[in-house]
């Protein structure tokens, strides 16, 4: 797997949470003090130089996350090794000292570790990281897991035959990534990273190199760079630290660096005095974008002063991004979307970046607006109210992270230590991080944030890049025109920003409460169901999986199926159109400001068959959450300007969607599967243009006019006795009319028989193939589990056949779905990317695997893989609020007994060769499927 560079803010600000107590500074730590490593971690260095980190963590129980971090990536390749850092990552799964050929993957699958979903790795410019999650209830499995990491570090066999077999797989990964985005990146990277290895060492390499490199050059990369002084082992999970440390010493202690090991160079991007420009077009580009980056060498975050600097930068970005978001909600916005960000572009380079998705022929207005907003801040600064909101959100975010310190999953923690080893990122732990935020954030002044804003825009080390579609009527500006935008804005007098904040309460008048009229408990799964006086149902499942999380979903049957054919085109996006206007007396922008520091989110939806709300928040903000639920039913807000802005924004995103060959492919699949039904047409710019605010508002109000046929499900850190008064006040008080509705059957059905379509689009030598099997199914738990088990088996078999045996694709994906309405039915999809001249071969191979299952059954080894994956996934899923919410809803809408939700492990034991054989015969009918293939325009 390839990982490309992405700027990451120094301090995460994506928190929407309640305000803590007034911002009073705690005792100030010394700014020169080094940030300590979390005291919960055990760390050390072996005599051979290998670093290790071990942190016990009980969430989830009986699991451990293992990582092998190698401080070596594609920038270390020489001209004969392009793409070989990544190729080597692939070879780690194709034969090691203790696991021949594919035995490593087979073994891990036999203990419930899924290839791709769990077991994985990635290669970037500067590093390669191997990912191995394991169950810990078997000492033997844990010991072998550490052995696998050690084999990756120093025991890869790199067999000639296996290298040749893997060429095809990696070339297919190269092929899968080809498209407008990659073509434009290949032209822009040499400008952005000029004078450095980053400009010409993309991790995927080149097709020519992948086809022709020698095995000796691959082994040389392994010998030179896979050595203990460039490695770290990270262990986080439910494991004895002493045992983990002993295994590290046992398995890795004998590794030694080669005698003539080359020094690991640090690749720098040279500074440049003059601005650099890149203007790139592509016929398949779907958006027009402009980006300005002000580059500087990456700075370490070692001391409290460094941490505080990141806080100031993060506050600046949060406030500027809020202004950009506000602009996009005006009808004549100069861009479709925009953001500001400070973070690393690559390991040794940071950038302050201004980015916008522009309208067609709108690069110059978008760039001018980006620079004007930066100039506005430079001249007038931010306002005190803006800074107060940003501080409140940041502090509450830190508070929420601290509250979850005992509930954080190991997978979230382990990557922090990987970043500490590779990039020196601090890992102070939740307690120290919270205390630093409490001590430092209140003391950040408006003047210093405004001073930072004036320092960020520079003439040196500036890179300006624009790209967009290559088509008639669309012209991108020249480099001279881009340069002129800076001169036009600099020093130009601009008006100060006015912070328009609503002062009215969210809900002006308290509703007249209803009541709970009946209660039913289901002790087997710990739920409580209330029937309310207005007819609504409320299901509550209290959990302790997260300390500061409550999720909810409300739903009612009907949806857009109940819109007339005349109204449907104008109301198909009614929920989004109406939501753009805000609720009650507040616009969307005013609402966002009013909710600053509140951990609440409520999103309305109207699908084809139901309408409802989804979201959640913090237990501390439940009343605000319930007020928003009430308002979304009773006070949707019509805002013509907001609706126009929403249409403009969505049209901007979608205007060139059809230029992407993969969009044409997906659209063909969608139209074919619905036999061209008018209500199943692809979502595009025409869909957006058809929306009508007045009709959308009327339809929305009708769908939410009767709460009596709604069900509300709440899962998370809630106490029923605290929730009940809120339910009675805000949900039982909702209007009810006694309606009992069902979705209309619109007659949308997949075709019968064999249907084949070919889509000829694009220039890359790339084909995509979709096989869709459909039919009737009784929507009962055992039937659906049979379909699911078959899809999981087929995923394993097609990975082995199409990827490992034939080298014809990077991955084959298998997914399934069932529907109860309008008729009980299923769909099972198989999809893969390949060379155009191999698509037919891979289709035949797919059907050969299906026929083999039907005729021969399933060997015990494959049965074990399916059963163990299901059993292990059930163990961890049952500790997730999202899993319970999703299943409580789906079981209810399907009419299933919710007490069966924890039964996945038991169902897994019932998977047999005969059951899978029967499922294949039933669900994979070769005489009833759709086949859609995308090929290049030039293909015969």
From TrEMBL:
The keyword Hydrolase applies. Its cofactor is Zn(2+). The keyword Hydrolase applies. Its EC number is 3.4.99.-. Residues 57-173 form the Peptidase M16 N-terminal domain. SUPFAM superfamilies: LuxS/MPP-like metallohydrolase. Belongs to the peptidase M16 family. It is an enzyme of class 3 (hydrolase). GO terms for molecular function: metal ion binding; metalloendopeptidase activity. Residues 213-394, 697-869 form the Peptidase M16 C-terminal domain. It comes from uncultured Gemmatimonadota bacterium. GO terms for biological process: proteolysis. Keywords: Hydrolase, Metal-binding, Metalloprotease, Protease, Signal, Zinc. PROSITE patterns: INSULINASE. This is Probable zinc protease pqqL. Residues 1-21 form the signal peptide.
């Amino acid at each position: 797997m390839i990982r490309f560079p992405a700027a990451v803010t120094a301090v995460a600000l994506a928190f929407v949470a309640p305000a803590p107590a007034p911002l009073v500074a705690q005792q100030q730590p010394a700014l020169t003090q080094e940030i300590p490593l979390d005291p919960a971690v055990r760390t050390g260095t072996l005599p051979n130089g290998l670093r290790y980190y071990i942190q016990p963590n009980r969430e989830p129980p009986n699991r451990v996350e293992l990582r092998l971090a190698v401080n070596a990536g594609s920038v270390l390749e020489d001209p004969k090794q392009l793409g070989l850092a990544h190729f080597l990552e692939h070879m780690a799964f194709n034969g090691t000292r203790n696991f021949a050929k594919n035995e490593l993957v087979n073994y891990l699958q036999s203990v419930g570790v899924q290839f791709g979903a769990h077991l994985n790795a990635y290669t970037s410019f500067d590093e390669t990281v191997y990912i191995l999650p394991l169950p810990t209830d078997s000492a033997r499995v844990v010991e072998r897991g550490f052995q696998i990491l050690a084999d990756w570090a120093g025991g890869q066999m790199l067999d000639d035959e296996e290298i040749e077999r893997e060429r095809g797989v990696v070339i297919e990964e190269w092929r899968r990534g080809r498209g407008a985005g990659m073509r434009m990146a290949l032209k822009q990277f040499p400008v952005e990273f000029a004078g450095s290895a980053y400009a010409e060492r993309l991790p995927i390499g080149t097709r020519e190199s992948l086809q022709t490199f020698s095995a000796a050059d691959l082994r040389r990369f392994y010998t030179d760079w896979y050595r203990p002084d460039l490695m770290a082992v990270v262990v986080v999970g439910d494991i004895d630290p002493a045992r983990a440390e002993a295994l590290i010493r046992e398995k890795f202690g004998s590794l030694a660096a080669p005698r003539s090991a080359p020094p690991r160079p640090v690749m720098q991007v040279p500074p440049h005095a003059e601005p650099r420009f890149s203007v790139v077009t592509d016929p398949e580009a779907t958006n027009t974008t402009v980006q300005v980056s002000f580059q500087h060498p990456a700075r370490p975050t070692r001391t409290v002063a460094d941490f505080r600097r990141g806080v100031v930068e993060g506050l600046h970005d949060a406030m500027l991004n809020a202004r950009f978001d506000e602009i996009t909600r005006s009808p004549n916005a100069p861009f479709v979307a925009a953001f500001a960000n400070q973070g690393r572009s690559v390991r040794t380079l940071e950038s302050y970046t201004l980015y916008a998705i522009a309208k067609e022929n709108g690069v110059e207005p978008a760039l001018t607006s980006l620079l004007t907003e930066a100039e506005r801040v430079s001249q007038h600064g931010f306002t005190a109210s803006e800074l107060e909101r940003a501080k409140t959100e940041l502090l509450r975010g830190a508070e929420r992270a601290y509250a979850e310190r005992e509930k954080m999953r190991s997978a979230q923690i382990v990557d922090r230590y990987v970043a500490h080893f590779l990039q020196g990122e601090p890992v102070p732990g939740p307690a120290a991080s919270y205390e630093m935020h409490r001590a430092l954030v209140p003391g950040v002044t408006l003047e210093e944030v405004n001073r930072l804003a004036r320092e960020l825009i520079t003439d040196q080390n500036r890179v300006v890049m624009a790209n967009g579609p290559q088509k008639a009527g669309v012209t991108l500006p020249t480099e001279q025109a881009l340069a002129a935008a800076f001169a036009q804005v600099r020093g130009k007098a601009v008006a100060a920003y006015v912070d328009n904040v609503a002062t009215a309460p969210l809900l002006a008048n308290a509703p007249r409460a209803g009541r709970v009229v009946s209660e039913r408990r289901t002790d087997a799964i710990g739920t409580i169901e209330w029937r309310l006086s207005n007819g609504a149902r409320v299901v509550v499942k209290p959990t302790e999986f997260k300390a500061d999380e409550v999720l909810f979903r409300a739903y009612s049957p009907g949806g857009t199926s109940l819109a007339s054919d005349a109204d449907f085109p104008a109301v198909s996006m009614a929920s989004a159109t109406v939501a753009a206007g805000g609720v009650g007396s507040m616009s969307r922008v005013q609402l966002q400001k009013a909710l600053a520091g509140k951990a609440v989110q409520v999103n309305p939806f109207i699908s084809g068959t139901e309408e409802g709300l989804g979201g959640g928040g913090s237990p501390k903000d439940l009343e605000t959450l319930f007020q928003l639920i009430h308002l979304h039913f009773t006070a949707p807000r019509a805002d013509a300007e907001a609706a126009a802005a929403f249409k403009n924004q969505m049209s901007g995103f979608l205007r060139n969607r059809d230029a992407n060959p993969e969009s044409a492919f997906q659209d063909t699949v969608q139209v074919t599967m619905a036999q061209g039904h008018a209500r199943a047409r692809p979502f595009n710019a025409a869909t957006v243009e058809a929306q009508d605010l007045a009709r959308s508002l009327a339809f929305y109000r009708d769908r939410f006019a009767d709460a009596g046929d709604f069900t509300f499900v709440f899962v998370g850190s809630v106490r029923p006795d605290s929730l009940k008064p809120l339910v009675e006040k805000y949900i039982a008080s909702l209007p009810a009319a006694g309606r009992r509705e069902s979705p209309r059957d619109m007659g949308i059905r997949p075709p019968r028989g064999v249907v084949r379509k070919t889509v000829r689009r694009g220039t890359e030598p790339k084909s995509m193939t979709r096989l869709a099997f459909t039919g009737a199914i009784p929507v009962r738990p055992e039937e659906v589990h049979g379909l699911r088990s078959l899809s999981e088996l087929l995923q394993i078999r097609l990975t082995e056949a199409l990827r490992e045996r034939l080298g014809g694709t990077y991955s084959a994906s298998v997914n399934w779905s069932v529907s109860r309405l309008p008729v009980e039915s299923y769909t099972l999809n198989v999809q893969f990317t390949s060379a155009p001249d191999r698509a037919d071969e891979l289709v035949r191979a797919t059907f050969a695997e299906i026929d083999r299952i039907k005729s021969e059954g399933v060997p015990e080894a494959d049965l074990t893989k399916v059963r163990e994956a299901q059993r292990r996934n059930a163990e961890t899923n049952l500790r997730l609020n999202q899993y319970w919410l999703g299943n409580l809803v789906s079981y209810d809408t399907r009419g299933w007994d919710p007490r069966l939700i924890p039964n996945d492990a038991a169902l897994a034991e019932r998977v047999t060769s005969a059951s899978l054989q029967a499922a294949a015969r039933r669900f994979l009918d070769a005489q009833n499927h759709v086949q859609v293939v995308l090929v290049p325009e030039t293909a015969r």
